[in-house]
């Protein structure tokens, strides 16, 4: 229809200016309608794309897509009645997305970081049993582990000018679609915080971390105690078997 209108414009160039103005306005209107239809088609695919991003833990892409879609549905497309169900669905997903991000943040803060320590201890215990060394197992060296605390402490005693570098590094964090998103815990937590900032849920995140702090630390102590007890029991069995006569 737009193409036909443009052809009519060419044919009516010799007509009055009012008719040309009318066709020009109609062309602008049709172009705007086409843009809105394209936007509606893209938004209709958001739930499926959002599910794929959440399944692959591409949380920053999911957050950007969801926030943009909700803004469009509550802005230029607010009067489109056919999108009311989709509007409610995406708005509900946006309200609940920060809960998923907070859970992921807690998992990396308290579980992933301590799992690396436990894995280091198990590797050393296994190495000690292979060489059949009766000396005590050396203490776990946690000084070189990349924990979230050390990610924050790198510039704790730096100059004021370098703090802006740290702040800008969070703004420049981007998701790499080819790598495992959880491979680098520090970058992954930066992505989670950036997503929470886009959702305007930083105050809720801080409150959730404060509320769950004691519970999570108790769970760390419980898991660590279980690991130490299991490792000690296993090592005691190995020593008792080695000391038995043939």
TrEMBL record:
Keywords: Exocytosis, Protein transport, Transport. Pfam families: Sec8_C, Sec8_N. GO terms for biological process: chemical synaptic transmission; Golgi to plasma membrane transport; protein targeting to membrane; protein transport; vesicle docking involved in exocytosis; vesicle tethering involved in exocytosis. Residues 1-52 form the Exocyst complex component Sec8 N-terminal domain. InterPro entries: Sec8/EXOC4, Sec8_exocyst_N, Sec8_M. One of its GO terms (cellular component) is exocyst. The keyword Protein transport applies. Residues 181-231 form the Exocyst complex component Sec8 middle helical bundle domain. It comes from the Eukaryota. Component of the exocyst complex involved in the docking of exocytic vesicles with fusion sites on the plasma membrane. Belongs to the SEC8 family. This is Exocyst complex component Sec8. It comes from Rhodinocichla rosea.
């Amino acid at each position: 229809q737009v193409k036909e209108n443009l052809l009519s414009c060419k044919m009516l160039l010799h007509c009055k200016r009012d008719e040309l103005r009318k066709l020009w306005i109609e062309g602008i209107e049709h172009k705007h309608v086409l843009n809105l239809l394209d936007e509606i088609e893209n938004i209709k695919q958001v739930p499926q794309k959002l599910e794929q991003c959440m399944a692959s833990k591409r949380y920053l892409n999911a957050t950007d897509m969801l926030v943009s879609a909700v803004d469009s549905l509550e802005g230029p497309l607010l009067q489109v009645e056919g999108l009311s169900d989709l509007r409610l669905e995406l708005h509900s997903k946006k309200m609940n997305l920060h809960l998923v991000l907070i859970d992921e943040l807690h998992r990396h803060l308290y579980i992933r970081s301590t799992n690396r320590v436990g894995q280091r201890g198990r590797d050393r215990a296994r190495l000690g049993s292979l060489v059949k060394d009766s000396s005590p197992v050396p203490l776990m060296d946690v000084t070189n582990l990349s924990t979230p605390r050390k990610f924050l402490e790198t510039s704790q005693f730096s100059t004021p000018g370098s703090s802006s570098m740290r702040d800008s590094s969070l703004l420049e964090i981007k998701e790499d679609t080819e790598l495992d998103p959880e491979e680098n815990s520090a970058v992954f937590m930066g992505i989670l915080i950036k997503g929470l900032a886009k959702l305007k849920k930083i105050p809720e995140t801080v409150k959730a971390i404060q509320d769950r702090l004691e519970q999570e630390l108790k769970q760390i102590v419980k898991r660590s105690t279980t690991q130490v007890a299991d490792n000690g029991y296993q090592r005691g069995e190995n020593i008792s078997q080695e000391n038995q006569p043939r």
